[in-house]
Amino acid sequence: MEKDLRSLRQFLEAIHPVSDELWQDLQACWQPVVFKRKTILTAAGETERYLYFVTEGIQRAFYLGPDDRREATVIFTYPPSFSGVADSFLTQTPSTFYLETLTASRLLRIGHDSYQELLVKHPAFKDLTFHFMAQVIKGILVRQAEIQCFTAEEKFRSFLTRSPHMLNLVPHKYLASYLSIDPSTFSRLLATAKL
Fold first, then answer.
1. Closest to 85 measured CA to CA, from 47, 123, 129, 120
2. CA dihedral in degrees (147, 181, 165, 15; nearest 10)?
3. How many CB atoms lie within 10 A of CB 148?
4. Which Pfam families did the record assign (predicted)?
5. Residue 113: how many other CB atoms lie within 10 Å
6. Fewer Cβ within 10 Å of end Cβ, the chain: N or C?
7. Per residue in 66-90, pLDDT tens?
8. Residue 195 pLDDT
9. pLDDT tens digits, residue range 10-21?
């Protein structure tokens, strides 16, 4: 667990400075958990109780359409990054998304009550959360622009630039869904790509 906590602190320090005083309280709130592949951590309709920090494995959040047949992968998480259904966690309202492990996963997690206590006790934790959320919003807006404005090939190339390692780790149907590309188009683009 010490290695995982060091990874968490390094990740946080890259966003905003973390004092030793804040770190002492922060590290005490995280618990290690392990899940098998294809485990649903949060289901639509449930309220997200945890924020996760990924130390091993890949997870995805997805939306299941009203007919329960069509799904859209909205995000992948992998080390080192946070995971969880953020809107449900922050608002403590039922999730509209599912969160599942795609591979066996080792995570650290913090409960909502502990998270709230840290926000009250440490103004610096509020600053850290603000800086992280600003980065998340920036990323969401860039991704939304790509989905709406890029051609299938441009989306595919952009993804290859950002996360080429995912091609060998995640089923291609999920990658196609994430990119909002038809699976047959994804296969064609993959066949012509110079990797």
1. 47
2. 20
3. 8
4. cNMP_binding (PF00027)
5. 10
6. C
7. 887 789 999 999 999 999 999 999 9
8. 59
9. 999 999 999 999
3-state secondary structure of 45: coil
Whole-prediction pTM: 0.91
Q: Which of 40-49, 65-74, 150-159 has the highest mean pLDDT?
A: 40-49
Helices (H) and strands (E) in the chain, counts: 8, 8
Nearest to 58 by CA among 111, 100, 1, 3: 100
- Distance of CA 138 to CAs 71, 133, 143, 157, Å? 24, 8, 9, 20
- Which pairing describes strands 50-56 and 105-111: parallel, antiparallel, or unpaired? antiparallel
Cis status of the peptide bond prior to 80, with omega within 30 of 0? yes
Backbone angles phi, psi at 83, to 5 degrees: -145, 165
Q: For residues 50-86, b (16+ Cβ closer than 10 Å) or e, as one string?
A: bbbbbbebbbbbbeeeeeeeeeebbbbbbbeebbbbb
Residue 73 pairs in a beta bridge with 62
| Tokens linked to 27 | 């590290």
CB-based contacts of 193: which residues, under 8 Å, 6+ apart?
Answer: 156, 160
